[in-house]
Write a structure and sequence with these properties.
By secondary structure, this protein is α/β, with parallel strands linked by helices. The protein is built from twelve helices and 13 strands. The radius of gyration is 20 Å and the shape is globular.
């Protein structure tokens, strides 16, 4: 089971890695360093010479070896590369042993995973309500959205808060109270703004407040968390158990948001989920990538006690739908794990030519005075 080849592919902005062993077994993984995916790709190829000839079964050893490779530098290009490689190795192990990855992780603690819908937006509260109604009609019981106007950076403090509160009110009135609403601030508020917003929105009983401020400092996030008196969700930009340990001890969130395609793959996020369990923290993974990352999440989701809601993206339309032969079943707001070996998916080699590479281009918002806003 020695590694004989490592290949990378771009499908639009999605970076896929394929690892092949000497007996021809193939495994696929996905990276989520989506802002700079070429850097993650270069890192994967930087690992290639070290990986060729290693035993694909030794996943834990390979993870630690790569994490400490070249003097243990940090960064999401490294995390994204290790994550993609790790997922592919678990896919190989599952195929070799002819069993789903979730079975290798200890079997099921649940039979399905609740999805939390994403993607609704609006220029006014009524438009948010329309999007929420669609999600409700599709059978979801949870929704995460950002109640921020498109031009939020140019709004006054009072107008920005007013718009956000009214948008959450519109969604709550639409979905009722037997429904969970996650609020994603998207790092768009200053600490004092986030604290005031949380105080006013508390009456609408949000499931969590995600990234109320930029995650530049765990200490700053902890200060906001101690004052906002609502469940905090953090971690989509973080990797490894060490960074999540600091959040657990300083910010004391209710939810961790690890991205399996940047936080350390299946090996890394399994440990993060165990760390969460020890602190009574729930896992609601960041996931807006492709079906490979989703399949890896669901394998962990059905086998990890601390897993809660799984972020849902539209994988039934291109380019995501063209990436693999099939996708994890999502029905009435619930994911059902695959019973097939490994991830249960096969990479579509035609997808890169159908959807050529598209680099990210998301400039930060600019305020009226010309300065850079947050995000």
């Amino acid at each position: 089971m020695k590694i004989s080849n490592i290949e990378t592919f771009f499908v639009s902005r999605f970076l896929v890695v394929r690892i092949t062993t000497e007996d021809g077994t193939e495994g696929i993984g996905e990276s989520c360093y989506w802002s700079y995916p070429k850097a993650a790709e270069a890192t994967i190829h930087g690992f290639k010479d070290a990986l060729i000839g290693m035993d694909a079964d030794d996943i834990e050893h390979i993870w630690t070896y790569l994490w400490r490779y070249n003097s243990a530098f940090r960064g999401n290009s490294i995390g994204g590369a290790i994550s993609a490689i790790d997922i592919a190795l678990w896919d190989i192990k599952g195929k070799r042993l002819e069993t789903p990855i979730w079975n290798l992780l200890g079997g099921k603690v649940r039979n399905k995973v609740r999805a939390i819908a994403q993607g609704i937006a609006g220029n006014n509260p009524d438009e948010y309500a329309i999007g929420a109604k669609k999600v409700l009609d599709e059978g979801f019981t949870a929704l995460k959205f950002t109640p921020m106007a498109e031009e939020w950076a140019k709004m006054s403090y009072t107008k920005m808060i007013k718009f956000a509160i009214e948008s959450v009110e519109a969604v709550r009135e639409t979905v009722g109270w037997d429904f969970d609403i996650g609020i994603e601030i998207h790092r768009n508020m200053q600490p004092h703004e986030a604290i005031v917003f949380c105080e006013e929105v508390a009456r609408l009983r949000p499931y969590f407040i995600e990234d109320p401020i930029v995650p530049d400092s765990v200490i700053s996030m902890g200060e906001v968390s101690s004052k906002m008196k609502l469940p905090l969700a953090v971690g989509e930009r973080n990797m490894g158990i060490w960074e999540f340990r600091e959040y657990a001890e300083i910010a004391k969130p209710a939810f961790f948001k690890p991205d399996i395609a940047v936080a350390g793959g299946i090996t890394g996020v399994k440990k993060i989920a165990t760390l969460a369990e020890a602190h009574h923290i729930k896992i609601s993974p960041h996931n807006f990538q492709g079906p490979i990352a989703t399949a890896a999440c669901i394998a962990l989701g059905v086998s990890s006690p601390s897993w809660d809601v799984q972020e849902s993206v539209q994988e039934n339309i291109p380019p995501r739908r063209d990436m693999t032969d099939e996708i994890i079943e999502l029905k009435n707001g619930w994911y059902t794990p695959s019973e097939k070996p490994g991830l249960g998916l096969i990479f579509n080699e035609k997808a890169p030519s159908i959807h050529p590479f598209q680099p990210a281009n998301v400039p930060p918002p600019i305020r009226e005075d010309g300065s850079v806003g947050l995000r």
